[in-house]
Amino acid sequence: MSAARRRDAAAPAAARDRPDACPGAWRRHDAADGALARFRPVGGATSSAELRLLAAAADTAPLELTSRGSWQVRGLSDQGADDLAAALSRVGGEAPLLDARGRDVPCSVVASPRTPAVDAPARAVADALRGRDDVPGRLLVAIDDGSGDVLGLDADVTVVLGGTLYLAGTPTGITGDDPAALALAAVEAFLAVRGDAWRVREVGADAVLEPLREHFPVREHRKVLTSPEGKLLEVLPRLGEVDTLAAAVLADLGDEGATLRVTPWRTVVLRDAPADARARLEGLVETGPSPWSTLSACVGAPRCAKSHTDVRGDLARAVATGRAGGLLPAHWVGCARACGTPAGPVAVVEGTPGGTYRTIVRAGKVSP
């Protein structure tokens, strides 16, 4: 880890001057195309019944996968959004999007998608946080199976199975036998000192560590790497958009025994996928090497009133003509706000008021 990255994790940032407005199941964002509702799966878990409800509510519009492994449904009426949330609360299951009381998870709880070893800790964390209004929606909690996949997200709180606690991407040396308990203790320690901050890096990792040192040991890292079980298939919906046909096939595969996990990389992992799953999804999502694997984009015009350009249409035309889709990740946006810019090195292709684009290579996110 670079010294600059360590300094960023430890140095407090300026205090927020506005409340967190991240949408959820019941708190929606009013976009140009209607209400936007966001549903945060527990470690990416989505049942066939939930997927069908989401797709039906989206109607002809695609479902959207976010960079935190959440589902978004756009273009809803207020009543339609309420009806969807109520229907989801009746689905049930071990890790529902909404529980029987209609409570969603207030922040994203992501987990390594390819192995079931992290499922129970992710559920325990989410269940403890459900319905709380003191947890900022921007907070990100991750449970890593030892492969380092979600560790690379530099979440506010990351626990690696058999390993250590990370705060804002920085290893702390603190360990615990119960990964869920350790993650929850770190969340509570952050909430106790956060003030109006949204993220751990805004208050500094040291402020969060202080109370944890009294209850959790600092010992040698014990690396544990779990192995995926069963047959795995990972597919990529273009720009994280899952249309009605793709959702129907994924739901059918879930009914046939596949376990569905959506990921922070806007992919869908199918554990124990049927042998013909790839063939059935061919043409609906990317099932092999694809120029779309390094591309992301904001929603653009006309669905966003602030966008200067039809971002997704322009990007599709650029891919079709070979002008987009190289090795360097590129994020296309319709204005300087650059919504959804991923972490790490990325070329931000920004729409201008004149309808053209300019490219800015960035080392990380434009805004927290």
Automatic annotation (TrEMBL):
The keyword Iron applies. It comes from the Bacteria. The keyword Transferase does not apply. Residues 1-20 have a biased composition (Basic and acidic residues). Transmembrane segments: none annotated. Residues 1-26 are annotated as: Disordered. Keywords: 4Fe-4S, Heme, Iron, Iron-sulfur, Metal-binding, Oxidoreductase. Coiled coil: none annotated. PANTHER family: BLR3264 PROTEIN (PTHR32439:SF9), FERREDOXIN--NITRITE REDUCTASE, CHLOROPLASTIC (PTHR32439). This is Precorrin-3B synthase. It comes from Actinomycetospora aeridis.
